[in-house]
Amino acid sequence: MPDTRLGTPEIYADLQHRLLTGGFAPGAKLMPSALHTEYGCSANTVRDVLLQLSKIGLVEFEIQRGFRARNVSIQKRAEIARFRVLLEQEGAVASMCNGGLEWESALAAAHHRLMHIEKQFARTQDTIPFVGIWSDAELAFHRTLLSECRLPPLQETFDNVYMQFRQQMVGLESNCVPSYFHRIIQEHQAIVDAATAKDEAALRSAIQNHQARHTERDVSATR
Q1: DSSP assignments along 141-184, one per residue
Q2: Could you give the C-alpha distances from 174 to 11, 23, 76, 122, 134, in angstroms and in order?
């Protein structure tokens, strides 16, 4: 980071990005007294930002013990994935019903960008340096899918749940191998096809299938 003082929104955005892309190890202690020098601000400013990040579930905070990057576990990821499915199914179906040609065009554009990135990743053996680019594009796609649900609380909750899920994914997966992207290219295509066909049953099924390897596999792994 540059030595010049940063404003609170920039610090929030940077810390959030680092938490979502493996910039901090799961459970790593986050010390305002150390981070404030890096961001060129007061320790209290960093503390306030970390408190905000704790409210969306990316940071754990305990009185007298301070802040830590959230720990990850297969069981936690499965729980978050199941909740994500419920939110996304309802939001996507509502958007499908409310959205018109403009929404379909926005969804197609977001999907095109995401698919281009995923196809590039499917050809490389080292995807770790590009996780941030892909994560931003995937979030933009799923936000667009829900953008016409006309339920702001659902959209806000989905954003928080998505970020918690992404943090769990990055913390648990040592590497997203090319075969991973081959699968999700097909899964994202199925979601778009169902949404633009106005097929509610197919859309719900496509969203469920997109998370099935995390919900079904992870549940059995914890028994």
Answers
A1: HHHHHHTTS--HHHHHHHHHHHHHHHHHHHHH-S---HHHHHHH
A2: 27, 13, 17, 16, 16
Tell me how far apart the alpha carbons of residues 165 and 105 are, in angstroms, rounded to a whole number.
Answer: 27
128, 172 contact by CB (below 8 A): no
Domains of the chain: 8-69 (1.10.10.10), 74-215 (1.20.120.530)
Question: Which comes out higher in pLDDT, residue 79 or 4?
Answer: 79
Residue (of 137, 140, 152) closest to 91 by Cα position: 152
In the predicted structure, residue 207 carries a pLDDT above the cut 80: yes
The structure tokens listed for 215 are 């919900």
User: What dihedral angle (degrees, nearest 10) is formed by the CA atoms of 100, 118, 81, 217?
Assistant: 130
Helices (H), strands (E): how many in the chain? 9, 3
The stretch 153-173 carries a mean pLDDT of 94
